[in-house]
Design brief:
The chain is α/β, with parallel strands linked by helices. The protein has helices at 56-63, 86-90, 107-115, 124-130, 146-158, 176-191, 203-209, 227-233, 253-258, 282-294, 309-317; strands at 8-22, 28-41, 44-49, 71-76, 92-95, 164-168, 195-199, 212-217, 220-225, 241-246, 265-270, 273-278, 301-305. Bound molecules: adenosine-5'-triphosphate. It is a peripheral membrane protein.
Length: 322
């Protein structure tokens, strides 16, 4: 039975997951997920964002029925994924980051093998052409580059015409051309009505692809909304501008931050790459230009941007590594 287009294809409520026993904790269990809420709809791309160790992979594995849960509720296409039968699995496509591909198989032979498991698979040739697999069709999988494996894993996930597609870091290892192809395909699949759930570390990917975003931190959902909603709900765009410029390394940013731009944050994020963040006014720009002129500095690039999803993410999940 097809789920109507505006129905959720995945709902997660108050998900709790304990793992262990952990040797470093005297053999105690550790609470990895402590209240994850997440809803994905058909015809939408829903992104799950979180820092390293926030619980993204564990959440997806529970949602796919690969792990049991210790509390809360998960419904995937209306069923409990952990207890579901093979029929539910045939309606779900999964592209894991590592690919899970057999190393000695060859790409097209593998896809033809996977296609034989379904009653009405997508034509292998169509996916091979679309994802640029033809040029390495007969190369053993162990010899493929990371990006080639990634495209093959995507083809394998799509072959059974899934209704729900899980993508773990879909652009990992892809060159700009492949990334473009994969992004166009994801948008088309969304328009065909698939419910697409992706995890990513790349805020730019989420900003480009996601209709709806969930941010998890330390095993809990801490924010959700469209990218625009998240940006506007966590700070005024007028107050949060970012100016970046490139110039010679080692400029005296302390003098700049304690002088003409004293109410703004100024940093040299990488050698020769500077950022000025805060409620920037036209006067600040004039003061900065005057500071450059006094020192005969001509930046090789100057860029002004509003608050981004990355700012929201860093505000919510902290700016330091935990
Ligand atoms: N079986 C386990 N035993 C102990 N700890 C675990 C187990 N599985 C996961 N964890 C811990 O749970 C936390 C969440 O892990 P998870 O892999 O879900 O995070 P993630 O958000 O996918 O991270 P990343 O972005 O690095 O892939 C981590 O601190 C991890 O070490």
């Amino acid at each position: 039975m097809q789920v109507p287009i505006d129905e959720p294809c995945l709902t997660i409520k108050g998900l709790i997951k304990d793992c262990g026993p952990v040797a470093g904790l005297d053999g105690k269990m550790i609470r990895v997920l402590a209240g994850v809420d997440f809803t994905a709809r058909r015809g939408s791309v829903t992104a799950l964002l979180g820092a390293n160790g926030a619980g993204k992979t564990t959440t997806l594995e529970c949602a796919q029925g690969l792990q049991s849960i210790d509390g809360g509720e998960i419904r995937l296409l209306g069923q409990d994924p952990y207890r579901a039968d093979a029929h539910l699995r045939s309606r779900v496509g999964v592209m894991l980051q590592e690919g899970g591909l057999p190393p000695s198989a060859r790409p097209v032979a593998l896809l033809e093998h996977v296609a034989r498991m379904y009653e009405a698979p997508r034509p292998v040739a169509e996916l091979v052409d679309r994802l640029g697999i033809r040029s390495f069709a007969d190369t053993g999988i162990r010899r493929l580059s990371g990006g080639q494996k990634q495209r093959l894993a995507m083809a394998a996930a799509l072959i059974g015409r899934p209704e729900v597609l899980f993508l773990d870091e879909p652009s990992a290892g892809l060159d700009p051309q492949s990334r473009q192809i994969v992004f166009e395909l994801i948008s088309e699949l969304r328009d065909e009505g698939l419910g697409i759930i992706l995890t990513t570390h790349l805020m730019d990917d989420a900003q480009k692809l996601a209709d709806y975003v969930y941010i998890i931190d330390a095993g809990k959902t801490v924010a959700s909304g469209t990218v625009a909603e998240l940006i506007s709900s966590t700070g005024s765009t007028a107050e949060q501008r970012l100016l970046t410029f490139d110039a010679e390394p080692g400029l005296d940013v302390v003098a700049l931050a304690s002088g003409p731009l004293h109410h703004l944050e100024v940093e040299e994020a990488a050698p020769g790459h500077y950022g000025v963040r805060g409620a920037l006014t036209p006067h600040d720009l004039a003061a900065l230009a005057a500071w450059w002129a006094e020192r005969n500095i001509l930046p090789s690039s100057v860029h002004m941007a509003s608050r981004t999803l990355e700012d929201v993410f860093l505000d919510l999940s902290g700016r330091t590594i935990r």
